Structures are given as structure tokens and as C-alpha cells.
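Action item from last week, closing it out:
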Amino acid sequence: MLNLYASPRGRIGRSAWWLGMVGIIAFSIGSAFLAMALLSPGGDVVAINAASFFLTLVTGGMMYCLHAKRFQDRGVAALPRVAPFLAAWLLDGALMALGVTSGPAGREEVAGAMTAVMFGFLVWYVVELGCLRGTDGPNAYGEDPALLRDFPHMPRDAAGWRPPEGGTAR
């Protein structure tokens, strides 16, 4: 499971992407509660904001690896599609950490704009990464994850192995 979040190399199918997203959400919620429990008693806003931004960086790295693998399963380069999301994610985290979009002095219009941008990425990623099929068979980024899952014992060759007649890859 850690390989989902540790490296952007390779390919994953839709089910692995959804499972990875559940893991990221669970990590985010758990670490946020832990940070609040450890840092809230003193009320040190700077420490809480620093911890929040650190968690934004960690989850951003996890999401990059997960999304990159899924885009690569679809046969497209990941960086041009994930970099704008990561830039918006890090900007949103930085604005929260600096108090621009959070706290009593938070600017609602900036927070609303960031929410709209992140919602746009959410819709795009759920459709493309969570619903659309990957490329069948091997591509430039590796073997088809469905073939590896459904037929792990079969040998692979350079020409690209296909499942036997009647077999299903997805």
C-alpha cells in the first residue's frame, strides 16, 4: 500500500486509485485531529498553521504519486496534468497557514475562489481517474495493472501479452 504514495512510477487501476484516495482522506483526517490535539491546548496559532502546512506538503506528495500512476495507466504524461492541481493545493495550504483564508481575519472571497478551483479539480479527477478506463495492455509506463491482477502467473513478452480468449482484463 505504501508504494501507492511513495513513487509516481508505474500504473494503477481505478480500484487502486479509489482505495488510495480513501487512505489519503483517512490520513488527512487522522493527522489533522492529532495535530489539533497536540497543539491546541497551548493555542499557538503559528505552530498549528505550520503543522497544517506541513500536512499539506505531505498529502500533496502522496496525491502526486497516486494521481501520476493513474494518469499513466490512461497512457498520458502525469506532470502536465498533476502540476496545476499541486500548485493550487499548495497555494490553498499556504493561504490557510498564513491566515488569509482561515481564522477571524480570513477573506471569504479568496476562500471561495480556492474552493471553486479545488472543486473543479475534484470533478475532473473523479471522472478521468476514478471512472474512465486505462489503456488496455502494456503502455510506455508499464504493464496493464488489470492483467497483472487477473493473470499474475502468465509470462510477459516484449510484444505485449494479451489474456487468453474469453479472459477479461477489466
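Closing note: The chain has one domain: 11-133.
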